[in-house]
Amino acid sequence: MGWIPAILVIVLVGWFVLTYNVLVRLRNQFRNAWYQIDVQLKRRHDLIPNLVEVVKDYMAYEQETLTRVIEARGAAISAKGAAAQGKAENLLTESLKSLFAVVEKYPELKANQNVASLQEELTGTENKIAFARQFYNDSVMTYNKIQSIPSNIIASVFDFSQTEYFEVGEESRAVPRADLR
Amino acid sequence: MLSFYDASSRNVRMSRLLFLALFASFLTVGGAIGAAYGSAAYGIALALILYAILASTAYFRGSSIVLSIHGAREADPSTHQKLRNVVEEMSIASGLPMPRVFVMESPGMNAFAAGRRPSEAIVAVTTGLLERLNREELQGVIGHEMAHIKSRDTLYNICAAVLVGAIALLADMFLRGTPFRGRGRSGGAGRGRGNAAFFVLGILLALLAPFAAKVLQMSISRQREYHADAVGAQFTRNPLGLASALEKIAQTGAQVPGENRGTQHLFLINPLRHFADDSSALLSTHPSTALRIQRLQAMAGVGAAVV
């Protein structure tokens, strides 16, 4: 009858290994998701100068809107720390929304191929930022389930700790995914 | 409790089972026919070769075959900027690598996903779909397709199509005695025995083929479509987008170039069904569009409750 404990040990070890691997995979997933958010934010920063160049000649009376976008972008790039960065990026989103709203009023601008293409790129990037954040939160939610029994045993032994969700600021909560056809 | 079981692992397991079942069938049939001619080994060898050809063609070339049947062309980044952006958005939302994007010329509105694994995945849409859907609706459709890719439905579909295609091919071949015609091994007596064997096998296969077709249809169950609708809605967080797209398709039509019975089950909406809403039939590949829309609306908290 000595083989019963042996089998039990094998099963237990097997379960430990499986659980550990799952935890590692989930942790990598949310870390990558966080990085993906950064990738999309940076992409947005890179797209904006082009857009400004193209529209500024048409928008003689809307300098204020353009200036706000340029300043918001500068602030977002130079912001330090996750909280400050988050706030700055949300403000940039707001200023871009105003810019898009203004572009709607200029038919020659809307008809311009370059502008249309850039606008689509920016819309796409806005959406990608939103979805990257969503995926990050989804990954964190799955990962945080490690706190439930019995996987929390493995989690505490190997130092997997709970992680925070990405907090969406109040200003940005109202931002829908831009639906510009 | 962490779960190690999900839709994608189930699909992978069932795909392996399908290949195994096909392998066993080939060996059995090949051996039986070979034995009727006096050499089971010959029969088995032939069957193995056939199986290898069939399985590897389907496994390695399955996606390309489906793409060329339906006239799909890769989506050019400048012409289809919005489509590629939406696909990239959905790949971020689902955590999957970006699939290759294809476009089919058709006034009908439809889409499909294919590919053995997420890193080699394909999404294809019709031009009719692109013209008529707004961004939210397009996101809904692409989200649905990415859901199929994530659950590995696409892998299972290829394997199931191979099974049916292979049995149909076998049935056809052996009913006509193709690999054995002209061998003339043992003159009259042998021919007589061979013919009897073919008769029996022909009947066997004739019975087997529709059974296999039924297996295909049942396995491409409506559950998968509901599941993909639900998971896709999770990605977009917007079930009404897909609901609205389905409504538009119901009004416009879902035809695609090269539509046929073999690939009908791959599509967002069955292109052959032409919307007779009798699809509570057990054998239909897709649930009725109206039901799908209702379920999506229920998810969004609009309209009638649980269907």
What can you see in these coordinates?
The complex is a heterodimer of chains A (181) and B (307). With 181 residues, chain A is mostly helical. Chain A has one domain: LemA-like domain (de novo design (two linked rop proteins), Up-down Bundle), CATH 1.20.1440. Chain A is 77% helix and 0% strand. In chain A, helix 1 runs antiparallel to helix 2, helix 1 packs antiparallel against helix 5 (113-144) and helix 2 (63-78) packs antiparallel against helix 3 (82-103). The longest helix of chain A is centred in the first third of the chain and has 54 residues, at 3-56. Mean pLDDT of chain A is 82; it is low at 169-181. By secondary structure, chain B is mainly alpha-helical. Chain B has 2 domains: 7-66 and 159-219; 70-154 and 221-299, Metalloproteases ("zincins"), catalytic domain (Zincin-like), CATH 3.30.2010. Chain B is 63% helix and 6% strand. In chain B, strands 1-2-4-3 form a 4-stranded mixed β-sheet, with helices on both faces. In chain B, helix 5 crosses helix 9 and helix 6 packs antiparallel against helix 7 (187-219). The longest helix of chain B is centred in the middle third of the chain and has 33 residues, at 187-219. Chain B is elongated and about 65 Å long. The two termini of chain B are 29 Å apart. The relative contact order of chain B is 0.13. Chains A and B meet through helix 1 and helix 5 of A and helix 3 and helix 5 of B.
Strand order of the largest sheet of chain B: 1-2-4-3
Quaternary structure: heterodimer
Question: Level of helix content of chain A?
Answer: over 70%
Sum up the overall morphology of chain A in one term: elongated
- H/E element order of chain B: HHEHEEEHHHHHHH
End-to-end separation of chain A in angstroms reads 72 Å
What's the main sheet of chain B like?
4 strands, mixed
**Strand pairing plus helix content of chain A: what structural class?**
mainly alpha
- Average pLDDT of chain B, rounded to a whole number, is 79
**CATH homology-level superfamily of the largest domain in chain B:** Metalloproteases ("zincins"), catalytic domain
Helix and strand run of chain A: HHHHHHH
How many domain modules of chain A? 1
Measured on Cα atoms, how large is the radius of gyration of chain A? 23 Å
Globular, elongated, flat, extended or rod-shaped: what is the shape of chain B?
A: elongated
The amount of helix of chain B comes to: 55-70%
* Head-to-tail CA distance between termini of chain B: 29 Å
Stretches with pLDDT under 50, minimum 5 residues of chain B: 180-190
